[in-house]
# Entry
Amino acid sequence: MSTFTITALNGVSYAFILFLLAAGFSLTFGVMGVLNLAHGALYVLGAYFGLAVIAQLDQFWLGVVIAALGTGLLGLGIYYLFLRHLYDKVPEQAVLTIGLGYAIANIILWVWGPFAKMGMTPSAFTGVVRVGTLAFPIYRLVIIVIGLLVLALLWWMQDKTRVGAIIRAGMDNKEMTRSLGINYGVVSTLVFLFGAALAGFAGILGTPILGAYPSMGDALVLLTLMVVVVGGTGFIQGTMLGALIIGLLDTFGKAYVPSVALFTSYVIFIVVLLVRPSGLIGRKVF
Amino acid sequence: MAALLEVSGLSVHFGGLAAVKDVTFSIEPGERLVMIGPNGAGKTTLFNLLTGQLKPSGGKVLFKGQDITHKPVYARTQLGMARSFQITSLFPNETVLTNALIALQGTRGGRYRMFGVFTRDKVLRSAAQELLESIDLWDKRSETVSSLAYGETRKLEMGLSLASSPDLLMLDEPSCGLTPTESKDITERINTLGKKITVLMISHDMDLAFGVAERIILLHFGEISCEGTCDEIRANQTVKDIYMGSHKASTAGG
Amino acid sequence: MATRPVDLLLGRLMRKAVAAPPVAAEGSRALALFKAWLPALVILLLLLVLPSFVPSYIQSLVTKMMIFALFGVSMNILWGYGGIPTFGHAAFFGFGGYVCGILIIHGGIANFWVNLVLVMVITALLGAGLGIPAFRVYGVGASDNPIYFLLVTLAFGELLVRVAISARSLTGGSTGLSGIPYPDLGIGVSINSYSYYFLVLGIVAVCLLVIYRIVNSHYGYALRGIHDNERRMQALGFNTWLYKYTSYIIAGMFGGVAGCLFAYFGGTMVPNNMGMAMTDIVFLIVILGSASVYFGPVIGAVIVVGVDYLASMYMPERWPLIMAAIIVVVIMFIPQGVGVLLLDLWRKVFHGSAA
# Structure
């Protein structure tokens, strides 16, 4: 029973890291229809860059903010220079961003070397919470809380703000939104900046738990795709659902049936794609 | 003689909204039947149900006595149905000749052949010459379709639909976007098709509709509102109320 | 209208199709055919005598170029001709290589020809198996964005990577399968890296000829028609699903042949040969070379493999950066590919006019 509870808690906190990882991608892919397969690499960059900043300044939260800003700006550059011009050319977007992902991984390798890093848990959140005989790291609870805050923020943005209304309208009909005189270009550029910044934010926050290594982006972008596709494209609550499914499945799989755990997520991913391509609670974006 | 196409109780719903409701009619071989109706009457939806592009929620479609309700588009063509498209639907990057060759290949044997040069197929080439001459485009055979004038693409559009020598030709707004002269040309062309080809057409263009039809069906809110000969339809009060009025209004407005 | 030999050789430009030449009299037609194939014959002859003039490392580089040329052309059946953007084509390449290696090392099948046929059959079966679910999510016509198909094929490739990593006893796990020997032709000639070049040249030439025939056949034109306008093709009576499905199998099969040749060439096969990175490389080869020209991917393969080689000599660690730079330049500035540019240049030089 206690193993089960711990596994469940681990699963949930892992799910929230996945949510943070996928939320930015969900915005740019599900809402704008831009396929940024360099998203995983941006996460890793956020981790390495953030750790370097933290090491320099010895300030955890400042490091987090700077890492998010840095990756956000890089993402902005990728969007403004390239992806903006590849509207509706999804295969080209994919080829380009996969290539950029490997380039970013290579730069990380170049600057910080090939060794895996383990993030330092900020001193305020070291230690564990004890409930009876169970011990659970505080930092994992912090991740869950931050994940919930980001979820609330995005949900509010999606349903209650003007930006949300514009991107929802843009989802339904891009031409129409343009012709209404709404500056869809500026809005989508900002959304992309925000999405990339979220990747870096997730990277630095997730590193104390997942660690980081230069070529990690590959595995991460696949996880991201799984989360977004399984949960459903176009709605942030879909991304949360997808993260919970993949996160819990993966954690429980590894704990109880390790031999097949490597495939379970893929199988779910493929089954959902085939049965309900728009995801469990999503809508068809394309 | 048995009807060529029999439609009974055909319906389709889009999320609770019935776009086509319980439509029943039939077409005799050699007949010219035209469907009219105001915008949003469900003409195109019904058309797509008949061609197989949409799956019906209920009802039956029989073609030559065979149940084709759930047959895919290509299988219907193999049985002898053909359609044209309202929005010109060609192979823009190929030449006029290649367009004809591809169209002719659709219902002929050997369309899975992986050896032999397609553009040198002698049987197909002579058939293509015949087809293109019949629509006055043989001289333009070497031109890429994207360089044709609009009127010419409409002609080719019709030509491709006739390539399978269909028993039932279904025309979706064949005069869409044409000048009155060009539209008259299309009317004439349909009338010279010969009785071996049955024609089902949907059209906004009243001159074309009355110029072609032997029988007219008026569709309104997804249902058959009334049907009859051209004279009966002209005289019908319902038609005047719900269609001609809006037609005139839209003409005046446009 | 003059016959343009170059059109016949390099494959008629699909997007800027030229008129079919009038059927000429027998004698002049034979001449035209000869002229059309002349550049191909010249290239073939050059490749045949090349090993006598260049050092062995160049010969080995050209071997690799030929293998990737076949890999690229096989993918272009789908992307250039059928308009189907698969992101899992590397899966067939790597799978073919693994099947080849496993048959030799674990199956004890030494004979090259038996092996090649088995690889073709097994990769075709893989394509037949994966194609059914994959095309369930592929919409009809250009109005439907093929993104879900792209994601499914990507997932299949990555799934196979994971399978290769965990089936350690068969595949050697994440370090890969190694110790694949040079092929045994069963005719008493021993193959080494020198003679393997000629074997690859022969197999690739035959495969390219077969694919060329396929894309210019009745079947091939139906595939082009589906690329241009799938709805119309259905209305004309073509079972478009069957064409897309079979083209997926055919492309996979030739991709498998390329993978098989690659396995013999390097002697090893690693899981990532089936994954995203390899798919990206083959997509780059196709786009760089021009998807709309038959020989385009060959040009793409020569450039990409060539640059890869130079990079491995001078700055092996920076290859991903160089590749990303090429991708950016190609996609942003020459999206139509180098093949189209070369074709136009060729016409200017030899025919006095650009297309």
Remarks:
- Chain C has a mean pLDDT of 86.
- Chain C is about 70% helix and 0% strand.
- The two ends of chain C are 13 Å apart (CA to CA).
